[in-house]
Amino acid sequence: MIRRLRRITPFQVILVTVFTALAAFMSLPIVFILNHAFKPTNELFLFPPRFFVQNPTGSNFEQLFLHATNATVPFSRYVFNSVFVVALTLISVIVVSTMAAYVLAKYQFHFKQLILSLITLSLMFAPETVGIPRYLIISGIHLHNTYLGHILPSLASPIAVFMLVGFISQIPGELMEAARIDGASHIGIFTKIVLPLAVPAIATISIFTFQGVWGDVETSTLFMQDETMRTLAFYVNSLLSGLQNSVAGQNVAAAAGLLMFIPNLIIFLLFQRKVLETMIHSGIK
Amino acid sequence: MGSITFNHVFKQYKGESRPAVNDFHLSIEEGEFLVLVGPSGCGKSTTLRMLAGLEEISGGELYIDDKFVNYVSPKDRDIAMVFQNYALYPNLSVYENIALGLKLRKTPKYEIELRVNRVAKILEISHLLDRKPSQLSGGQKQRVALGRAIAREPQVFLMDEPLSNLDAKLRAQTRAEIIKLQSDLKRTTVYVTHDQVEAMTMGTRIVVMKDGVIQQVAPPKRLYDEPANLFVAGFIGSPQMNFVEGSVTREEGRYYFNNKRMKLLLPSAYDGLFDRMNRAVRNVVLGVRPEHVLLKTPEPDDDEKGFVTSAVQMTEVTGADSYVYVTVGESKIIARTDPGTAYRNEDKPAIGFNMSKLHFFDENTGISLADGGDEE
Fold it and tell me: Angle, nearest 10°, between helix axes A250-284 and A199-214?
């Protein structure tokens, strides 16, 4: 029996080969971005293009920072805005969504079903469709050129609430009852029992909230007229869009592309194990 | 410390016609081990949850230590509960699981440590204190759940089918441990189970419930010997009590039990029962436990001795005993016999009853004629 388990069948060999090839293919863009950012200008325009860098150089980044310092707003301002907005949004989305999801998953109250349906319903709308009403609301409450204007629109995250409701409702009710008998308050049950158990789901929503906010250009374009309130994503985007057909700034664009990508990769690597747990959990129970 | 009084307690769920718990009226004394037993859906768990404060009480009053607690939250009732699926906090270690209740009650740290270690020693889980619940076996989890309840030193322990997730051997072992623990700690314990063996072995008093209504409250022996009605008689004991329908008639000053196939002269000890049942037709159900059914080879004078012919359908050998399933007319009867005497199918042994161990129930109401039911 044990021998049979250990033996590698031809099928397994094929499976591993195919998946390795597939994984390698999927990682090509990442490898390309990494290499591209370090290519000197002459290599960037080689034809046929090369995948790997021959003579790596840091000059692209130098150019990027130089280009930025020439602009009216320093590069560091964009970075600060981005980091500040992302951090605050992430924290508030987690706080709001987990609390909402806990109540929706574990308590009985009037109109609960209606609220859940509304949340599901709001998943249907593409961001573009709510662009105008969102603009009217932001301008109506004068949040132009404020950090709140960045954070508020992404605060209510139906997909996060939706996922967390699914996850939290699988936590056995007896755990909460045991905690109630042990003397925990509602907040105590939430912080001591529910939050720690929901960490995998929180990790998942953190990843896509981060990606959404970090890469978001729309908020800076629509709501922020003051250049000092705009984010890195907007800056890089405007840099790239200005360069689409020009030869001159391609090296800067390559460096900026990598710069935008790195944080996403880091966040994903940090949380991916927890994300897998979410998937396993939702599969079994 | 730890007396409980249910004063006509009701539980009515919205949209259901019949109450889940119907007029539950009972006093539990301090230090008592009370077992609630009944088939699933009989309201035993609901009763326990009302006592714990996890379920609202729809009507009636509940007192713990003569304090009215209908609206007191679970944490202020000074109770601890052990759940069927253990309900250990998966994110906390065994130590933290046991300590959480104490921590939340602002017990000083040195005392928490003292109590957790003492409890761990009693339950022999000292070596597990650093582990997470997911690293424990079912039996170990159950011990931790017990430990969590004990460490708080509450007035009342509530246990909701705590053994039903364990395998048979572990269940018997843990059962014995809970009994010992309870007698050592002398705390009032209310224990819910659907397993009549558990109920009989653990409880100092047993409450049998059905459809939300208390059927009988009595110590185990009394419940077995003097069931108050047909339901209790059938529920307690395995295999269950045999029931034979018939009527009781009076001839020449003596009572006889009759049906199509048998006519039994009843000992005069039962006369009182039937005298009270002052009707022309006394339709009854005769109940007799398998161990009080006698099987023997047929003899010519069987009729006078109260034996009738039966037909063997099947035999079950459990090792210590064997159970012989026979039919007498339309009645199916199980007899417990010595496994030494083998009966084959289609054998026709004579069957008789131990006449001093018969039970009689009113055919219409199911209530025992002995009226030995309700407690005290």
Answer: 160
Which residue in B342, B261, B246, B356 sits closest to B302, CA to CA? B261
B84 neighbourhood in chain A, CB within 8 Å: 174
Task: Output the domain CATH number for residue B64.
Answer: 3.40.50.300
CB of B161 closer than 8 Å to CB of B193: yes
Domains and CATH numbers, chain A: 71-284 (1.10.3720.10)
B50 with B171, same domain: the answer is: yes
Question: Domain range spanning residue B32?
Answer: 4-234
- Asked whether residue B152 falls in the same domain as residue B192, the answer is yes
Summarize pLDDT for B33-79 with one digit per residue, the tens: 999 999 998 999 999 999 999 999 999 999 999 999 999 999 999 99
Q: Which amino acid is at A99?
A: M
Where residue B259 sits, what CATH number does that domain have?
Answer: 2.40.50.140
Those residues of chain B whose CB sits closer than 8 Å to some CB in chain A are: 52-54, 73-75, 79-81, 83-85, 87, 89-91, 100-101, 104-105, 148, 152
Q: Could you report the per-residue pLDDT of B201-250, keeping only the tens digit for each?
A: 999 999 999 999 999 999 999 999 999 999 999 999 888 999 999 988 88
CA separation for the pair B44, B22 (Å, rounded): 11
- Residues of chain A with Cβ-Cβ distance to B89 below 8 Å are 175, 178-179, 192-193
Quick check: B74 and A180 CB within 8 A? yes
Q: Which A residues 154-193 touch B at CB under 8 Å?
A: 172, 174-175, 177-184, 188, 192-193
Residues B192, B54 share a domain: yes
ipTM: 0.82
